[in-house]
């Protein structure tokens, strides 16, 4: 009765956790590509049509055949929001991470997101939209955020930190090629590459904040936070907290955007130690599976909240103290 449509790889951990807590809950997952690792813990899987024109007919069939009551849409958010009324008329609850198209567009643009947060007087990292390589060069020369800060860029639209670079005049020109994990690039090298591009993608120019980063995973229903847990990133380790100013900030942010479902808010500490908003992702984070060690199950709370059923084993009571986790790369057998 729960359908996960095509989403990102963290769906695997979400479905596995749900099946552990709700073994009798029938879970269906679908994808337009061959992704057996995502489907491993589902009770049934189906191949989504690649043609969006066939998607509605496909959904009607899946809903009818399996008696689906709740749909978690991982991708194609704009399509699902455009068809929300039709889909929910079939007797299901649709969860996309947002409540309407406008809020998704704001969340998807780091510039519009920052502007909205400022309007509501929430602290957000200062930023400038860059639409050309020449503008980037001019802004870097003018040092709009001060002379003593490190500058960084990332795409206006994007996920998982792809395209994020810290710019420095003082590192070797080839640094970005042999030390990609540092996300450091020589400023002149970056500018030269951007000037060669015939398809410049808009960037956000920001001061780099080196304070602790918190990734706040949340279950939210129509802007009301059910539970939020922050993962504090310290090098290759992460620890957890369930209260504090970063979580308060994330809750306020999710309320403004009327977030709906399993979402993620990113913060970093400013030089004075206070958190500022970086972005909201209206989808489960890539690291949500780390929370399985925390004592709190957000996937479990998601099911409880939207389907009003209780888990066979409670894993949502309290945060376990003094837990640190470290991600590992592992292989699984796919057939």
UniProtKB/TrEMBL annotation:
Keyword vocabulary terms for this entry: ATP-binding, Ligase, Nucleotide-binding
Ranges in coiled-coil conformation: none
Limits of the ATP-grasp domain: 114-307
GO molecular function: ATP binding; ligase activity; metal ion binding
Pfam families for the chain: ATPgrasp_Ter
Identification of the protein by name: Carbamoyl-phosphate synthase large chain
